[in-house]
Amino acid sequence: MKENMLIMKVRDNYKYFGGLSLLYGFIFTFCLYKNVSGITFPICVAITVLFAILFMRKINYRLMKNSIPYLVGMGMLGVSSAFTTSTFMHFFNIVGILLLFMVFMIHQFYNDNIWNFPAYLQRIFILMGTTVMSIPYPYWHGGWFFSKNKYIRRNNTLIAIVIGFIVAMGILCVTLPLLLKSDIMFSKIFGEILSYVNFSTLFWISFTFIIGFTLPYAFFTALCHYNFPEGKERKVRFFDPVIGITFTSIVSLIYLIYCAIQIMYLFLGMSTGLPSYVTYAEYARGGFWELLFVSIINFIVILLCMYLFRENVALKVILTIMCGCTFVMIISSAYRMKMYINEYNLTFLRILVLWFLIVLALIMIGMVISIYGKKFSLFRYIIVVVSVMYIGFSFARPDVIIARYDIAQWKNTDKQDFFYLMYETMSIDAAPEIAKIDLDDKEWALIENEYLKQTMYNYFLNISINNENIYFRKANYSRIRAKLAADQFLEEHKDYNREHNRM
């Protein structure tokens, strides 16, 4: 009954919920249409939270104080999107905001304090599936509302006109292109008229609006279904811990031998030495990805053992040993990557991997605690760790860090490194740092110096042209700084442009 009562309350108050969804659709379109990096992005995040609170108040739900951290995290991710031009960061900022928003709303509707890690993941997927299934609700409820509205029923002519207009538009979408192809004069006359209408823009604006209108209503309706399993009861029985003890003991023994070799040859390798045919760079690169993958597998195995097997002291000790070996593997991976960076400089992937290793190490600390602490919420711990670390990573603007590091290592820099900084990164965040390079300086005496000058000039010319007239919606901190740096560089280094010199 609880589900039906809430759904019926939403339906009966369609004027309120549908009106808010309609208003949100307009705001969503204005803020985010072809724009996930401008100043309107964090504004849209703030408005999303406001509308969520307004939705909840209508059904007598109040904002909980312990929900504030989720909102702060969402806000900071929104602001960080307006500080960078990295497409990678923009994508994962959106993912992070959506996940935090789902956890925030689940926390508002349910008592999630008793859920363990698998239970929380299960309910997130249930909510996502229910949201998809609830997409028709804003239209079903809208149809019910209009059919019950006496004023609208009295004005059948208006409804008929709207329906007729929609049908006509649908027919013309098919027939008009065929008519344009069938007659040259008709095509010429209508072609001139239609040249003033950008149908592609109209389509995508309409599509964005439909998303902004539909998803909030569908998501809120999905929450009102209250279709999550009650309590924290297990549907999967506990298995005999002897199974876990047996296979984890064998795996742990191999891990201990491997960790001993890491300590002898990698961490103490400078004194012990490697075979003459193996360089430290090759040794570092050779096993990094494998170790990273094994560390992730260990995380999954330990997590499954914690929730599938009956509690056992011996199993806990072995899982702790596995965690310890995983720490050694993480340190080994980080050390290998550090050696490789010393040889071949920084790239986005390398700095991302270092960040991931730190996050994985912090998560493993939480796993060790959860092995012995029944009341420890591993899911919330992971949410906090990943959120804090990712927000810091996003605000740090990795491309700027990469540019500063690689430029500082100018003795190890070649033409490929310059091309990477200018054309292979996913942003123009590093443009102000690249603008500081003076290829006329003797320290930067590189092969094909003149070609690099022209390349740098073209790089900043493209930035300057592509970022003309930055208006309010698309105002972005890094984009503005890159534009200013580009204009200054072009003014100060006109001699870099061969075509300009010919003139």
UniProtKB/TrEMBL annotation:
Entry keyword annotation includes ATP-binding: no
Coiled coil: none
Keyword Mitochondrion tagged: no
UniProtKB keywords: Membrane, Transmembrane, Transmembrane helix
Transmembrane segments: 16-33, 39-56, 91-110, 117-137, 157-180, 201-223, 243-268, 288-309, 315-335, 347-372, 378-396
Pfam family, one: DUF4153
Protein name, entry field: DUF4173 domain-containing protein
